[in-house]
Amino acid sequence: GQSLEQPSEVTAVEGAIVQINCTYQTSGFYGLSWYQQHDGGAPTFLSYNALDGLEETGRFSSFLSRSDSYGYLLLQELQMKDSASYFCAAWDQGGKLIFGQGTELSVKP
Amino acid sequence: DTEVTQTPKHLVMGMTNKKSLKCEQHMGHRAMYWYKQKAKKPPELMFVYSYEKLSINESVPSRFSPECPNSSLLNLHLHALQPEDSALYLCASSQGPSRSGNQPQHFGDGTRLSIL
């Protein structure tokens, strides 16, 4: 089976750095993706890691360690608009994208 | 605004009604998806269409009936729904059905469905 574990909520202040962790158990591995979803909005693709290491896209970075079955999303210079739910996701062998339960990030002034 | 358009944005229906949700994309994507999302939960896959053929049906009750009339359109026909079917229904598309994050899924804003 496939499961992804991430914290249910994280709180941080504007301008800070926050890390959202994701550990996974998969029967096959095809990379780890991250999606952002604002309240009432559509999930939006943020990043993807197929190989070990860090991928940087502006203020957001994502890291993967396949040997540890672990990844994280790093958000820098936090802004109020970053308050949202963040999902890690991985494909299973049947071709389905499986999402973690989501981490609700609250950014305080 | 997203590149995947879903209509209607909100739908209230009784348990005996028949209605349809519509989804449209013009990105040339060949894989399209229906998800159901309850509040504070992740999206749950319902159906996958690959090159206009149904490739995955996640044991969804027959009161939900998907249809892919062409490569740009995806419908979800609803009939005799139950109150527990109230949820946000999301449509998504990707370039192909590959298990790869470099073909991310693009989601619509969803249809918020309430069953009375």
**Rough outline of chain B:** globular
**Sequence stretches where pLDDT stays below 50 over 5 or more residues of chain B:** none
What's the helical proportion of residues of chain A? under 10%
The termini of chain A sit apart by: 41 Å
Oligomer class: heterodimer
Residue runs with pLDDT of under 50 for 5 or more positions of chain A? none
Can you put this structure into words, describing what you see?
- The complex is a heterodimer of chains A (109) and B (116).
- Chain A has strands spanning 3-5, 9-13, 18-25, 32-37, 44-49, 53-57, 60-65, 70-75, 84-91, 97-99, 103-108.
- Helices cover 0% and strands 57% of the residues of chain A.
- Chain A is an all-beta fold and 109 residues long.
- Chain A starts with a strand and ends with a strand.
- By secondary structure, chain B is mainly β.
- Helices cover 0% and strands 55% of the residues of chain B.
- Chain B has strands spanning 4-7, 10-13, 18-25, 31-37, 44-50, 53-57, 64-70, 73-79, 87-94, 106-107, 111-115.
- In chain B, strands 2, 4, 5, 6, 9, 10 and 11 form a seven-stranded mixed β-sheet that branches.
- Chain B is globular and about 40 Å long.
- The chains are: A mainly beta (109), B mainly beta (116).
- The A-B interface holds A 30-33, 41-45, 47-50, 87, 91, 94-97, 99-102, 104 and B 2, 4, 40-43, 45, 48, 55-56, 58, 90, 92, 97, 99-102, 104-110.
Task: Write a brief structural summary.
The complex is a heterodimer of chains A (109) and B (116). Chain A has 109 residues and is mainly β. In chain A, 0% of the residues lie in helices and 57% in strands.
